[in-house]
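Review session, final week

We close the course with one last complete record, chosen because it touches almost every idea we covered. It is histidine kinase, a protein from Oceanibacterium hippocampi with 778 residues. Go through it on your own first, then we will talk.
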Amino acid sequence: MTKEKNARGVPLRVLIVEDSEVDTELLVRELRRGGYEPGYRRVAQSETFNEALDNQDWDIILCDYTMPGFSGTEALSLLRDRGLDIPFIFVSGTIGEETAVAAMRAGAQDYVVKDNLKRLFPAIERELREAEMRRQRMQAESERRAVELKFREVLAMAPDAIVAADENQRITIFNRAAEALFGYDAAEVSGQPIAILRPRHSAGTDQTDPVAFDGQPDTRGLSGGPVETIWQRKNGEEFPAEASLSRLVDNGNTTFMAVIRDISGRKRDEATLRKLSRAVHHSASLIVITDHAGVIEYANPSLLRTMGFAADEVIGRKPSLWKSGAAAESHYAALWETVLAGRDWHGEFQNRCKDGSLISVFATISPIKDPGGQITHFISIQEDITQRKALESQLQQAQKMEAVGQLTGGMAHDFNNLLTVVIGNLDLLRDEFETRPTAQRMAQLALDASLRGADLTRKLLAFSRRQPLETKAFDLNALVAATTELLRRTIGEQISIELDLAADLWPALADPAQLEAALTNLAINARDAMPDGGTLTIATANAEINQQFADRNVEVTVGNYVTLAVSDTGTGMPQAILDKVFEPFFTTKEEGKGTGLGLSMIYGFVKQSGGHVWIDSEVGRGTKVLLYLPKAGGDPETVAGANGDEPEKARHDATVLVVEDNAEVRDVAVSQLRTFGYQVVEAEDGPAAMALLEQGLPVDLLFTDVVMPGGMSGLDLARNARRLRPELKVLFTTGFAAMAPTGDAMNGDNGNVLRKPYRKEELARKIGEALGGREPGT
């Protein structure tokens, strides 16, 4: 350090160790002559020397070599023992070369002979300068050590693992985070190759490895930013990490510094995020994500595909894009109030697709929050429930139709018993009034009205799927062709009939007579829907219903079917009417022009046959009714017309046991049978009839109702009676088709069932058929 001199001299704090005051004054004058203004103190004993060192800082010490009771070497030793770095110069009268060398070895900076004080000033200048340089070096070293200490503290406290290695790639620094990350103690790895922290298969193969990095051009900074690589723990477990490597070169020494951050958790999170992203992308649910203002940022492919939009048509817009208008604004206000409050909203929407069609969705809309709890986005997950709601509607309709069917079926059964009594007695009265034309005409009018009532109950039974059916395999094309010839005369010339009949049509399995009636009914409905004329198209085809179609429609069974489609170009019907057309007594015709049972009968007949019915209509474009009939397993039978021959009124002396719980119905049957000449015995229930048979009563025919009280049905009675009398003939009667006996219950007497209400002629024919046409006593 160079000190500038001024007029007063450069201040200099000098401790003079000298026993001679004269020599001291001499030294002070020399210092002043050299441009210094010394502030000094003279000491000559060790005590005062130590005291001076304790009380003040000194720039330089000038010391005599030889003094009485205290020597210069002792003073130098005391100074060095204190560890003080103060320039120390011997100033002596006589000093030999050996003494001077010894003094220098003891730590003195220089020596000056009192006889030659000219050397004193340059020596002081030099020593002050060197002392300043030493102080600067010490300060720099101190600062370096402080920085190093702070650096090591930072290393110790750093959250990331920090590993340093020398130019031989041997570990020199291993902080606490590195210990926790790798599982080694710092002492274990100190001096070890850094390669122990890398899997063998990756060591030296990437930029974060010192072996590879060492071959790069010299650099004193980072290697170009963090990169991902694989490291290995003490237990052999490999893990991904983000590492930054720097190489420091100082005085030719190279140090590698690696900052390593375990990214296993981040990798797992990224993998989870990718899975979630793929799940959202491939989800069948309709998913849309908006920002906090409701602007769409993402829409998954299912939503775009279902609603017919492209991504760029929805991104940046709001979900009101597909608002249908079906819901009130209060519905949307409640939605926003819920999600802005941080809660999930659940509910149904109707969305309008790009093509204008509507879909029903069940949506869950949830707010997405940042770590601070602030809403940043909203996510809407929607399920397309259009098909489900359609199925629910179909199911509700089917359940309603079933309930109405059960009600009407039960009513029809009761009416059949009443009508059996009325029709039976009117038949008897009409015969009684042969000589009284007026009374006979009145009886005929009453009988005709009763028969219309019977026809009404038949229609109700058809709707309730409880009418008697004579199911057989038949050629639907042949039936359509034959029926069409009659229809051309019925529906008028203004209606054009077109046939589209499949050439390879399978045989159908149903009641041909009922299907003919259904076709006629549909044709008449079509005619009424085309008052100004039009085209009636009747088509047949083979059809297969698969599981996918069955799953989308209630009461539909997988299988092969034969279809009959009847289409018109008439006025058509709106959806509100379509929803009710199969309900009994529902009609759009004027009063007196329709009973409202036509389509109900068709619906019940087809369902009872194991088939299905669909109707499609559009206002102004017409209506199409499609009947699915089961495919028959065998060849079709010839569809024959009804046998119009009336049975002869044969009189027999056979004995008939009539079993009927309804006394009025029983009285009618007994009276009619007696008019035929039969011997009649009656019983009110099964046990009473069995009692008569067990008594040995001669009986040729058992005529029994099917449904009876007393714990024994007509079927049970027939079985018990035939065990007692195997040759006994049986004829059943019922007003409830579902209770009609079939198969084993009839013991081979197929067709021996008389449906209520029945005419006198029908009773006579069935009794004769059951008896096998034999004469009494044969």
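Two points worth writing down before the exam:
The first strand starts at residue 10 and ends at 17.
The chain has five domains: 10-137, 158-267, 283-384, 472-630, 655-770.
Good luck, everyone.
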